[in-house]
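Possible race condition, two jobs.
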Amino acid sequence: MARKAGLGVAMGLVSGLLLLGTAGCGTAVSPMDWGVLNYPIPVSPYFSDRLEDRAWDEERYQKMPILPPLVEGVPHTALDEPSDDEVMRLFEKARPSEGGLPFLHEVQRNNVRIVKELITDAIDPPRVYPLVGPAQLHHVHWKCTVYFTEQTWVSWPIPHMIRNEDAVEVVYIDHDHLHMVGNVDGGGGENSNY
């Protein structure tokens, strides 16, 4: 009888320890949640920012939209100009200001003004695109001129500041997109072939 009670107490303690081991964020049962020896591994915010920027660019600027067919009698002009965010992201890729050495070499850009000019707005004749079908390619090219004031602080070996009041950079952006051709709904019609 005492043996059964001791066995019951031992089983209760083991199951209690297992339940305590599975509570919380990281556990001994699942060491993949934490690092080696159940200690958390610190991750720099640089990596998460980089992933978020990549996802933002892909979601907003790297996909080519497929729009409905063009309607006769309606002007076929480019409607959306590049956003200031898109221009500055491409500008930062061309001339990155981040990643300098704090207190040794720092770059700052102020008084940013962006001028956007439409260079090309043309529509190709219809053709068949793989995985899309019959469509027309609408070419839209923008020239974006960025005017800004750039300050560069250098602290070593001789501390000094360089200020460029008339800094200019040009960024070219393509907003090409496709327009479906013919009857998109699938019913026969006069434009069902093209």
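Job #2 (started ~2 s after job #1):
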Amino acid sequence: MLQKKAAQPANSESKAVTPLDSLDLRQALSWVIVDIHAKGWAQGTGGNFSAALSHQPTTLLMAPSSVDKGIVQPEALLEVDANGQVVAGEGRASAETPLHLAIVEATGASAVLHTHSIFGTLLSMHYAPLGEIVFSGYEMLKGLEGIRTHEAHVSLPILANSQNMTQLSQEVSRLLLQHSGLYGLLLAGHGLYTWGETLFQARRHVEILEFCLELAYRQLTLPKLK
């Protein structure tokens, strides 16, 4: 289970204000989706994103399927129930909704973000035979909730991609129940799933893990030292 977010400074004047501080969840999720698209991590209709409106029963706020993620407006977001059915809004829920539900139920997360970055896609295939990619030694790892040292070892497990979302969501559930403390996972040839106790935390985890993925790829291209 992810650790709780550290308390924020009491002096609000010293804290930079972001859209996530001042907007409601619907506006905030829309902003996050457009921001991730702008970074090139969810081009075209790629990626899917959710934030929990409630737990027990789970209700998710989600981007509709097959829409350009660069133009998702707050009013276009769907409300989806624990069975993956749209209960409010117009459009279809993503075919990968069962994966979001599995992650929320296994981790208690309040947001799940799925990117289709070039580096995540390439490395998920490259390291698939090993079943994971491990990051260590990077100061940026301290951007992940609960990490206090660059010496930490952070694993991103890699699962085979599938179009059978029921089966794949069951594999994700088993993985998360067997290995607590994960920050994300990769689907081979597909991309990154990460999550957080808040939407802001999940977005931060996306940024840190995408940074590490790009770093790992660039490291592979460096000439070996003599």
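Confidence is low (pLDDT under 50) at residues 1-22.
Logs attached separately.
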